[in-house]
Amino acid sequence: MNLTPEERVEILERQLHDQGHVDPDTIDAHITAIEEATEDGTGPSTALGAKVVARAWNDPQFRARLLDDAVAAVAEYASQAVPLAVLADTEAVHHVIVCTLCSCYPSGLLGNPPAWYKSFEYRSRVVREPRAVLAEFGMELPEDMALHVHDSTAEQRYLVLPMRPAGTQGWSEERLAALVTRDSMVGTGWPLSH
Ligand code: FE
Q: I need a surface site. Which of 22, 97, 139, 179 has the fewest CB within 10 A?
């Protein structure tokens, strides 16, 4: 039997329901809550990740805690079901994340991954020819900048802490957060510059 992931989920959900483990209305309510949270950044979403990055740019102590123990540092924003590590970009090193096996993503902070992240093309090519893939995302990496590709798993998730854009001294966290894109936290984009 060839089932799509959606069909498998439906069957699993129906069986859990039939055996009294779950209530479909509860599941729908959770999904709605997650989707609504995306708007204001109170739940896992690009907006929530952007808040964390902007705070790390503005608050050196928070940045240090984030790099040392990301799960503990982000606990006040969202609890993480899977260990999370934050990878800080520098002038010398750029990080990019992938899940070569499936679609493991820092979902506890960013919510659902975009479709391209789950695509076979991205998963296979970003490991073999990362610079070419990033160029297709519009990122030209300086020749002397090292590029590290991190393979996420069910046991370890990653988030990229991009470099703070130049010319943003004195900006509030709210204003900085507007510069942080989803792709910049995956490593396939730079933050906006203004
Ligand atoms: Fe995966």
A: 22
Ligand 1 centroid to Cα of residue 152, in Å, is 6
Containing domain of residue 11, as a range? 5-40
CA 50 to ligand 1 center in whole angstroms: 23
Token pair, residue 150, equals: 């991190």
Model pLDDT for residues 52-69, shown as the tens digit of each residue: 999 999 999 999 999 999
Does one domain contain both 68 and 114?
A: yes
Residue 75 CA to chain centroid, in angstroms?
Answer: 16
Rounded to an integer, what distance in angstroms lies between the CA atom of residue 169 and that of residue 104?
34
Looking at the structure, do residues 32 and 84 belong to the same domain, yes or no? no
Q: Looking at the structure, tell me whether residues 59 and 36 fall in a common domain.
A: no
Taking the model in full, what pTM does it have?
0.83
Q: Which of 102, 119, 124, 172 is catalytic?
A: 102
**Distance of CA 98 from the midpoint of ligand 1 (Å):** 8
Annotated catalytic residue 102: yes
